[in-house]
Specification:
- There is one protein chain.
- By secondary structure, the chain is α/β, with parallel strands linked by helices.
- About 40% of the residues lie in helices and about 10% in strands.
- The chain has a three-stranded mixed beta sheet. Strands 4-5 form a two-stranded parallel ribbon.
- Residues about 40-50 and about 50-55 have low confidence and may be disordered.
Amino acid sequence: MGSDGSATGGMRKFGVGAAVVAVLVVAAVAVAIGAVRSLGDQPQTVALSPTAAAVESAVYVHIHGEVVAPGIYRLGSDARVVDVIAAAGGLTTDADDSAVNLARLVVDGEQLRVPAVGEEAAPHSGAPTADGRVALNSADAAALETLPGIGPALAERIISWRSEHGPFRAVEDLLGVPGIGDKVLAGLRDQVTL
């Protein structure tokens, strides 16, 4: 009986082990079938709400003049004039596209006007604002030279820096212009705006 009892106990152990293996095999097959079936499904697009960083990096630009749909447009912070024009439906047939710099980076809050062919472009000299400050992102050399410590050479360097790097995002960006250090910046800080 001892030999029959131990044979029965061994059979039970073998039966439980086989059952566990069988369950694992069935589970693996079910997972494999589900994975194969999902390969045929179309990927789902999930709309994500904008993050705070995405909202902060947006710029708003008011475009008017010879564009199909004038208005205010929200674009990425790296948007250029050509992107704003595209958002506004493109240029009208009367537009003078040579009167605007299509490659220029736009600045948050700016107003952009596209003139008609033969129409005089709006002055963009950077004349002092209503509060008397000079707008760094639109000032021409003459307007920049009215600032303390800025002569013709430094005015041209500011314009070159702006052309190469895009619009100033903060007055402190002037420190990137060769020849402008902390002392010159201190003298300009209350005299300029973006």
